[in-house]
Structures are given as structure tokens and as C-alpha cells.
Write a structure and sequence with these properties.
Strand content: under 5%
Number of strands: 0
Distance between the termini: 48 Å
Structural class: mainly alpha
Radius of gyration: 17 Å
Oligomer: single chain
Number of domains: 1
Length: 182
């Protein structure tokens, strides 16, 4: 894949990540501070299995595109995030097939651990000059800034953090919204 195509992919994924971040924050605000009945949250609650499946699908495909097609090798923390993201594709796929809303109980621990690893990586990626990250600049490293779009805001660690955050938000809506519904 040439650099121009990779740049367009980065911009496309970056715009998607920013939109997903805005929607996730809006969902959380509406969930905890909004009215009890909300059209947007009704839609999300009704279709959370489909939305979660597609977010986990894209979050599993694009890291493979970056590593296997563009040849951006993942660092140690990226590998650990993959360990916690990739199984969610199968969890949400099976839950979608069976229409099983109880997937919230099984996916939450995986996504929570992945989110914590991703938050740790992002903190040191953006704020840590001399950190103790296991991926220093001598080998495969996050510090190489292989993806840096929108003024450096969008990076591979930020894309991963966005995916974990969005999926956890969808699970929160599915669990807490209209709790009296079965």
C-alpha cells in the first residue's frame, strides 16, 4: 500500500474515531444526566448488538491491515490490546446471532482491561517524554508516531482507546438504560 493510500485510510479512520468519540460522550451524558426517555438512546439500546459487532469487527480488521498490509508492526502494548479486543468480535457475533443481551456480562471484563491498557499507552504516548513503556524507541515502538493525523491527535493508540471506550459506552447503555425493560 502506498503512502498516499495509507494517509487517506488514516484520515478516514481518524474522522470515524472523532465521530465515535463525540457520539460516545453524548450517549454517556444522555444516559446519566438526560431525560428517562430518549429517542437516541432507545435506538442505541435496541441495536447495541449490531453496533457493538461492527465496532469490534472494524477494531479487529484495521489493526491487521496496519500490521499485515501497511507493515506497521505492533508494539507490546498494542499486542495486549489485541488480546482483549479480538475475542469481542466472536462474543458480539455470537450474541448478535443468538440475540443474547447477556453478552454485557462477558464482554465488559475484556473491554475494561483493554481500555485500561489503552489508557496507559495513550497517557505515555501523549504526555510521557521519558516513560517506562515496554515499547521504547529502540525496537517496535509507539514513539515512532506511525499515524499522526489532525495535529497529532489521532494515532494508533488513540484509535484503540476510542474503540474500547465506544464499546464500553454501548455496554453501559445496554445495561443501564431502561433497566425496568427485560
Amino acid at each position: 500500500m502506498n503512502t498516499e493510500t495509507a494517509h487517506y485510510l488514516n484520515v478516514f479512520l481518524g474522522l470515524g474515531a472523532i465521530i465515535l468519540q463525540v457520539l460516545s460522550v453524548a450517549m454517556l451524558v444522555m444516559l446519566f444526566f438526560g431525560p428517562k426517555k430518549n429517542i437516541f438512546l432507545d435506538y442505541v439500546d435496541k441495536h447495541f448488538l449490531v453496533l457493538s459487532f461492527f465496532i469490534s469487527l472494524f477494531s479487529s480488521i484495521f489493526p491487521l491491515v496496519y500490521s499485515e498490509i501497511i507493515h506497521f508492526l505492533p508494539c507490546v502494548l498494542c499486542w495486549w490490546q489485541r488480546v482483549f479486543m479480538f475475542p469481542t468480535l466472536f462474543l458480539f457475533g455470537t450474541a448478535l446471532w443468538d440475540k443474547d443481551r447477556k453478552v454485557v456480562r462477558y464482554a465488559t471484563p475484556l473491554l475494561s482491561i483493554g481500555f485500561l491498557i489503552s489508557a496507559y499507552q495513550n497517557f505515555f504516548y501523549y504526555f510521557g517524554e521519558n516513560s517506562n513503556l515496554p515499547c521504547d524507541a529502540t525496537g517496535v515502538s509507539c514513539y515512532q508516531h506511525l499515524v499522526s493525523e489532525f495535529g497529532g491527535y489521532i494515532s494508533i493508540p488513540m484509535l484503540a482507546l476510542t474503540a474500547f471506550f465506544a464499546l464500553l459506552t454501548l455496554l453501559a447503555v445496554a445495561h443501564f438504560y431502561n433497566k425496568n425493560k427485560v
